[in-house]
Amino acid sequence: MANNSGLFVSVLGGAALVLGAAYGWTARDFRSQELVALTDRLSQLEASNTDLAERVEQKADLEEKISELEVSLAAALEAVEAAKSAAAAPAPAPAAPEPDTIVADASGFQFGDPSRGEEVFAQCRSCHQIGQGASDRIGPHLNGIFGRRAGAHDGFRYSDDMAMMGSDGLTWEIETLNAYLENPKALVSRTRMNFAGLKDAQDRSDILAYLRQFSASPQNIPEAAPTAQAREVDLSPEVLAIVGDTDYGEYLASECKTCHQQDGSDQGIPSIIQWPTEDFVVAMHAYKRQIRPHPVMQMMASRLSDEEIAALAAYFAQLE
Amino acid sequence: MKLNRRAFVGTGMAAASTLSAPMVHAASHGKPKVVVVGGGAGGATAARYIAKDSAGEIDVTLIEPTRTYYTCFFSNLYIGGFRDLNSIAHSYGKLASEYGINVVHDWATGVDRDAKTVALAGGGSVPYDRLILSPGIDFIEGSVPGWDISAQNAMPHAYKAGSQTELLKAQIMAMPEGGTYVMVAPPNPYRCPPGPYERISMVAHLLKANNPTAKIIIADPKEKFSKQALFEEGWQKHYTGMVERIGPDFGGGNVTVDPAAMTVNIDGEVVNADVVNVIPAQKAGLICDAAGLTEGNWAPVDGHSMVSRLDENIHILGDATNQGDMPKSGYSANSQAKVAAMAVRGALTGSRVFPAKFSNTCWSLIATDDGVKVGAAYEPNDEKIASVSSFVSQTGEDSALRKATYEESIGWYEGITTDMFG
Prior knowledge:
The complex is a heterodimer of chains A (320) and B (422).
Chain A: H1 2-23, H2 30-88, E1 103-104, E2 110-111, H3 114-121, H4 160-167, H5 174-182, H6 184-187, H7 201-212, H8 237-241, H9 246-256, H10 277-288, H11 295-302, H12 306-317
Antiparallel strand pairs in A: 1-2
Helix pairs in contact in A: 1-2, 3-7, 5-7, 9-12, 10-11, 10-12
Chain B: H1 5-27, E1 33-37, H2 43-54, E2 59-63, E3 68-70, H3 75-80, E4 89-91, H4 93-97, E5 102-104, E6 108-112, E7 117-120, E8 125-127, E9 130-133, E10 137-139, H5 163-173, E11 180-184, H6 195-210, E12 215-219, H7 228-238, E13 243-246, E14 255-258, E15 263-266, E16 269-272, E17 275-278, E18 282-284, H8 286-290, E19 299-302, E20 307-308, E21 314-316, E22 321-322, H9 330-349, E23 358-367, E24 370-380, E25 385-392, H10 399-421
Parallel strand pairs in B: 1-2, 1-9, 2-5, 9-21, 11-12, 11-17, 12-13, 19-22
Antiparallel strand pairs in B: 3-4, 6-7, 7-8, 10-18, 14-15, 15-16, 19-20, 23-24, 24-25
């Protein structure tokens, strides 16, 4: 420490004064001896005073150092905790990625930031649920998607192409998910997932880091964010409980079918068959209230009553 | 749908039914009979919905002269090179084979409204309980002085798709370097309001690639036109300096043509042209007038059921009608067809009838991946079909949205042609 050498120099200086005073003592009278002794004493006091001041400074310095050490100790403990929880999730790679760290898997894929991935995932939520209590909606739930064979999640009706890709051996791993998210129809040409794709590589690595958290052992799936399973629009239970008149729905649906294909194929315009009725109702109300942006759909929905929306939902849900 | 062997077989069956149809009808007194004239967006849709939803309770006959139907919508995309001709060609095979519709390839020349029969050019007549007319448009003679239908090979209209569209494209491809294409645009109202201007975009796209010093002139009698700001922005962006529009202020409404000399006289100024695309003023398809169902150039209908205001047993669809606010478009005709089909079934079999709703959207392609759209929703009142809400693409939209809009139009094409032809 810099102050130590300063202190040492001061002590030497004090000692030299004492020696000098002793050397001149025999050549002087008592008064001058007394003066010398007093001067000496003063010097000693001064030296001691300086010494004390140095020590006070030193103490403050040490306290600062201690608090610095405490901070780094806390950070180290936190890192250990994070590493422990990451290690609790079985991972294909031997070392589990830390949430905030970009880690490459064996193929060189860079996992991104899962909390940013959660934000990117917001656009997926109208069709896919994830987290505790997630269930199949317009799309299958995505818990445990890593390692799952494509089109093989029990109880969900996939497009023929997706089912075929699965039986041909497509499995959802980092590389395949990355390719699918970049351009769904390039990988599975007639998938019913109507999504143009995430063109930004960072978006994909972030969202995959997020999804990855839900592919751990099932008992360790994190709680999804509170907003995850919330509806896009706030609808009263009465509106959701309306049982649609499928005959009326069939007539109303004739207007939809000018664009949306009855056989569920989609090319530029999404498939709307076999949706859970609640999702259909929520989506139409979201257009009606102009929460969803598409101008044609806003126009179509704007003049549909709650009963008419329920009728359409009931009709399209039962189409084969 | 593309032409394929199955469709060909279906058309063969339909052709066979041409001979037997009148006799079959005479023999089956019990079933109510619906005759549909015109196999386009209105007629094919109406025939299909009535046959499909009545599940054999109604006899449906569709009278359409052509065996292969080329959609007017997307025919501009063929000119621009975005579609081949085969991709806009459709046959009536499925309507005959899967829906049991008697498809009669003949011209309907007149209607005996008292006897309730439709006369065919090939002889004979077809009886009906309800008649649906969806004949599209015909041209008003003399609307462009110097032009008549006999000049359509020298100066094509290409406003009924098929051989005319092919001819126009061939003429544009054969233009000399730096040559001139002139469009004589129609006055309101006419089929497909953005159609002439989408065509200009597609002609410009074709010429930019093959003949970039060529000029495009539009002589236009209208002050304003559909999606004008969008088209003008697009022409400026993609085809700078190629397109010149002469509006009515500068004599664009005062045009004569000379098909022999290949000249266009615009307000006294003679333009030597290499291609002249004359789109004349329009009126309801001839059968409407022949049946006495028109007032002025168009056939008035009641929007609640698309029934003629002049005959309660005849419904009229699409471009031929005067119904109110809906534009003359394939989408509108398809929308109207479903209302008419429901009303006809209700009248003949007592099936449920719901309040009529209509809609329309028109997509137009300006350049590669640069699509725009305009649309509205409609409901009938006692006076007319009235617009209740509408939207239109905006200028300055980003390229991703324009591309998505174009892709949406491809989806719509698949949807509506499936809705028409099965």
